[in-house]
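Subject: sequence -> structure tokens, single chain

Hey, anyone have a minute? Need the predicted structure for the following. Not urgent.
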Amino acid sequence: MAIILTLPDEYGYVLLATVSTFFANSFHSINTGIQRKAAGIKYPAAYAPQEVAEKDPKAFAFNCAQRAHANFTENLTPAIGSMLIAGLKYPVLAGALGGLWSLTRVLYTIGYTKKGPQGRTKFGIASSLSLLALKLMAAYTAVQIAFH
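Reply:
Had a minute. Here:
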């Protein structure tokens, strides 16, 4: 059985939110590169060794930036998928939550890089809640479409 899919007029908001993740990822890459250079950590090392990071604030900041970037990429696929699916029925809300997710991921990284793990909490909670809402909306949308 074929399904004809008509996108809502407001689906552009979802696409804008999705595109915002590309720029958030670029921010993460640039931030990590700057921190790597400042710490003098050579490729291919993914992180500064723990004993170095404990003594060198620049190496510690690099590790925090690198971990924030890894955490972003770990959550990127579910975020984009959730935005695109939820946006089929709730484009304005999905676009807003997706944009919020991207913004909070950038702010999470800034806090994490500057203050260590304690600097990530506030925006980590905000990004987790926005992503949870997107996932729930995506699941609900999928059920609605599957059993229409």
